[in-house]
Amino acid sequence: MIVAGRTLRGGLDLRADVVVVGTGAGGAMMLRELAARGVDVVGLEMGAHSTAVDFSMREADMLELLMQERGARATADQQVRIVQGRGVGGSTVHNLCLCKRTPDEVLRHWARDLGAARLSPESLAPDYAATEAELSVQKVDAGYLNENNRLFKVGCDVLGYASDYTSHNRVGCMKSGYCIMGCPFDGKQNALKVLLPKAVAGGARVYADARVERVLTRRGRAVGVSGSLLDEAGRPFAPLRVRAGAVCLGGSAVGSAALAIQSGLPDPSGRTGRNLFVHPAGAVAGVFDQPVDGWRGVPQTYECTEFLEFHPGSEKRVWLVPVFAHPIATAVMTPGFGERHAAVMAKYRHMAALTAVVHDESPGRVRVTKAGRIQIDYALSPADQAQLTLGLREGARILLAAGAREVVVNYENDPLTLTDPGQLGQVDARGAPPYELPLTAVHPMGTLPMSDDPRRGVVDSRGEHHAVKGLFVCDGSVFPTSIGVPPQISIYTVSRHVARFVAEAG
Amino acid sequence: MARAGVAGVALGLGGLTLHQSSGYAAPAGDALRALSPKEFAVLLAAGEVILQGLDPELAHEAARWGDGYVARQSSWLRREVKALLHLFEHAPPLLGAGWSRATRLGLEARSAYLERWRASERALLRQGYGGLKSIVFMGAYRDPRAWAHCSYGGPPEHPLRGPR
Ligand SMILES: Cc1cc2nc3c(=O)[nH]c(=O)nc-3n(C[C@H](O)[C@H](O)[C@H](O)COP(=O)(O)OP(=O)(O)OC[C@H]3O[C@@H](n4cnc5c(N)ncnc54)[C@H](O)[C@@H]3O)c2cc1C
After folding, report:
1. CB nearest to B49's CB, from A59, A328, A337
2. What global pTM score does this model have?
3. I need a surface site. Which of A26, A89, A253, A342 has the fewest CB within 10 A?
4. Based on the domain organization, do A286 and A383 belong to the same domain?
5. How far is it, in rounded angstroms, from Cα A411 to Cα A335?
């Protein structure tokens, strides 16, 4: 059973072989793996335990229920909106189910150049295959294309751009289009639906509303965690403590790094929290004569990889994929306010949109302020701005090729409207300067990077901290660089890999 | 940095914000949960400008919802939003938008004032603009009256709950 911490008025004091912090992609796979190996494991999740019946498909309510900081998380300068999950199942509850392995070039670079020896394509391949089988990952076909994705495909086909259907972890999908608010039809084969029930059936004890605030150490060894149980409003009301032979962090690249920092853990490489990549993304919208109703149907079933290459130093680092936002997110991201804004929103039904996602090289940083707040610093380097510009321009080209009457690039000061491919140079001229474009990032990673070289990594390629024995990390924090593709399947897989070593330590 | 800045600047306005809290009528209906009558009036005034072109009642709805949203936020974010509202109310003179409070500016002047925040060189004001815009649009576009404006069909029937 998954216990709601809010009901435990007397607090929580437990012992276990292993305690896992967070129940998202990394944490849930760790819990499932350890339980299957007969390890006595406890999982602690700061957010609530919500299930299909709670996923109301109401945008504002679901932002509050499922997202960190009730949907208000952003970089300190508010330039990039950082969307992350909070709750049992983590970000896998509201993600879009796209599954794509980390490309071999990236894994080879990690193994060969960055000291993550155990993450070579060859060593991870069996774990990838097992994860994909467990989560029912399948390539979708034309039957899954909604109008937004179909138009994107038309544009790619007209231009001859490298493009293809994507793979997803969904079974019994009703194509409602509300994936981003949690699936009320329970079609997602994610941490919440697949892994945590198995973990619990295998004996794992999982607690929601349980926020870890400190990793406890003794003589250079992790010995447990402490924190607070949270009430319905998210306020602490009772203490929690779990003593364990090993601790595993699965709180995401933001949450785990923040926990390491606020616990005052040693940081010999000086990299804790510093190596943050986020896949910053900007959107382009096209207005079509016919209704698109882009919120209906399965999102992100088609992708364009024409401008995405993975060798280090690549000048093509942008992934193009259809995207569609419900009215609140669209209104917030649309520049301006008042009558002009309302006029844009009136075209909502006729809009198709896509996002240009940068395989970024600009490292940001997670910090914790004196008051205990998480602060995220992130700015695009000029090279990454150039990649974003490339993506916006080519995204606009795709929409025009698909027959858009006009294409809008959402510059805050004077949005750019294009009606003809001959005008695309205007995107290059405007570029992607700071604060000019509403940016979103949904893939934080890299803040506790893996390397067997303690000067380069916070954890080794078994996932164990270089300076704190018995402390492991199993989430997106461990990626040494950006991966350039959606990360969930890689996080599940790396967690499966790390679990072997955690089981030995616990 | 910048978030803390909003509170800092509002405190810098000092006596101004503290002394001028009277004269704001509490909204009719349910009691406010996080905002004072003054803060509610400022959010409403901002909403009236931001939501021009939509059903005029939505500004009130957005301010109501915004009050609840702020109440559910962490204490530091609550402080920041309140500070932002005070700053918005009292900064027209600082931005050359007249000697009036924001809530007393006419719609057109208030719109021009908000535009100064949007286009400001100062990150603090731009961020404040972004914060107001987010709260107001969240509050408005959760409402079927705003869905009608953008022809959004709304969610299907919930398979486990039926229609709401
Ligand atoms: C809108 C959106 C769409 C996405 N779509 C896709 C997609 O289609 N494909 C894809 O591959 N990826 C997608 N992603 C990204 C993917 O879901 C994440 O990269 C992945 O889930 C991250 O796994 P994680 O284990 O690192 O963290 P998470 O899954 O975020 O889980 C971390 C969990 O830890 C909890 N936690 C944090 N700190 C603490 C603490 N101190 N104490 C207790 N609990 C804590 C959090 O509440 C959270 O539940 C999407 C993300 C978003 C936001």
Report:
1. A337
2. 0.96
3. A342
4. yes
5. 7
